[in-house]
Amino acid sequence: MAFTVELEEWVGSAWHRFITRHASPDFPEARVELESEQRAIGVLFRALGGASGVGVAAANPRDLLLRRSLLQQVAGTCKQLPVAWCDASHLRLPQSLAVYPDAALNRELYRWLALLAAQAGDMRHWARDNQAWTCALLERYPALRPRYRALVEAHLPLRPDPARLPSGEAALERALQQALREPGSVSAFPSSERAPWPLPLWLYPAERLDQPQAGNLDEDDESALQSSAGQRNDLRKRARRVEESTSKGGLLLFRLENLFSWSEHVDLDRCGDDSEDLDAARVAEDLDEMALSRQRLRKGGGLKLHLDLPPAEADDLPLGEGLLLPEWDYRQQRLKADFVQVQRMLPRGAEPKPLPDRLAPLARRLRRQFEHLRNDRQWLRQQPQGDELDLQAWLDFHVERRHGQCVEKGLFLEQRQTRRDLACLLLADLSMSTEAHLDNEHRVIDVIGDSLLLFGETLSALGDPFALYGFSSLRRQQVRLSELKAFEQRYDDHTRGRIQALKPGYYTRMGAAIRQASRLLAERGQRRKLLLLVTDGKPNDLDLYEGRYGVEDTREAVMEARRQGILPFCITIDQEAGDYLPYMFGANGYTLIRQPRQLPLRLPQLYRQLTQR
């Protein structure tokens, strides 16, 4: 009996593999994965005018009412097929392409879709708009014509034969094939009850995947949905709203004599497990459609303490009135004037303290390394008098005199003291994420505090004017800028005490902090101005500042600082910083510290490298 069951399972799996393979229209041996082409596609998309904040991600298969062959109906395949589409935030491409029997053509198809998306605008009519975008792209870049022709000629033999289709579908298929051969030549398309076979060279309308839950989920629902969806991959899921009501439940009938025992009900307060549910993540990945219900269990008695500011007697000390700053809205492509309020503050309970004994040996070593920069001397060439003979100037003079072109020049080298005309402001991220532990003894905030202390010890010995600030935020009305040392203040035990009194704050409204730091640097009279930002993550806040909005505002603040002659540079310990920091600070505007415990030592070294450029 067991042998029969195993044989049936083997035959069933073999049949499934056979029928699925023969019913599939793809060419598995020539498959190209999006992951291997994603970076190049993103660069190509932006190079040809695509929106800078649009990311390249995988598209989930879409339901299409297609006419399937008998083999496909038996196999149950081709109900869903991946197509390319683009919206305001993402360019969605198939997770893999095996449309052509040649891998080079599949790779070329990825590039064509990126180019077409960079040219595309709002879609009003699927076929006419794709023709117009194709014509505009080929007219602007004539070198693409042979590539496009090769893709079309290789794809047309793979499409359904109009002679084998019903009249309505055949007329639509002929019109589409004509539109592929000669873009712009077809303006009217016959109607059909079934969708045409997918056109891999065209973009499809954006799928409104977020519509079912819009307006029906509160803030907790949305954040939970986003976090759960982002655990595994970047595929977006369709959502369907379902209504659940306990009032519609059936009537349960039972007989008391069937109860054989009595038990006492006791309410127990059990700790909730907030760890990641990997099984749920895998199930969500396999689902094509998610049903969302508003009915859910709520944790009673919970307090979201981070949503409210502490009482005034326990909060940091404010310095003066708040400052109103603008913020960049990428959706409207403009600066919103007086949109953010920045409040300068002093850490409460900060008492003068010396440098901790554990940091004293490293501080002495750094001071010795930086002493020669303070007394740096420079040799000046071609001086009329000096300490040594300038052999290069003497050789030039000798050659010119032999050719009758003698020009009076100084022939000596003179050594003079050089003055470092430089000011630096260090801005440290104090958001709640810095509460995270690096090991059993050290938190991120502890490493940042040690870095500030050693940086202050080094620059005070060097003599360069510098300032130290920390920042966190709680929506746009409360961007908190902790003043640890202003430019006009001395670095002493008062500053050391403020640094050692730092505590993790709230969120990371990075753009406002950079703008205020740029204002403080712009008031300095030094020729060179350096803005260092130390952070452990990307911009975020409770309001719209999450995601692309915060990234775009930070990027705009960085560009504003550069237009003022300030050099912004970011030092991060976030291992995923390569996904967003190059866009915000540029390829050479940031560095990643892979071992966070090395930050206190690396920070002064990075300052030395940046100021010697």
The helix count comes to: 17
- CATH class category name of the largest domain: Alpha Beta
Strand content: 15-25%
Number of strands: 22
CATH fold label of the largest domain: Rossmann fold
**Second-tier CATH architecture of the largest domain:** 3-Layer(aba) Sandwich
Count of spatially separate domains: 3
Shape descriptor: extended
CATH superfamily of the largest domain: von Willebrand factor, type A domain
Uncertain spans: 209-233, 259-276, 296-307
Main sheet summary:
9 strands, mixed
Helix content: 25-40%
Which structural class do the helices and strands define?
A: alpha/beta
What is the terminal separation in angstroms?
Answer: 79 Å
- What's the pLDDT, averaged over the residues? 78
**Gyration radius, in Å:** 33 Å
Brief characterization of the structure:
By secondary structure, the chain is α/β, with parallel strands linked by helices. The chain is 36% helix and 18% strand. The strands form 6 sheets. Strands 11, 12, 13, 17, 18, 19, 20, 21 and 22 form a 9-stranded mixed sheet that branches. Strands 2-6-5-8 form a 4-stranded mixed sheet. A 3-stranded antiparallel sheet has the order 14-16-15.
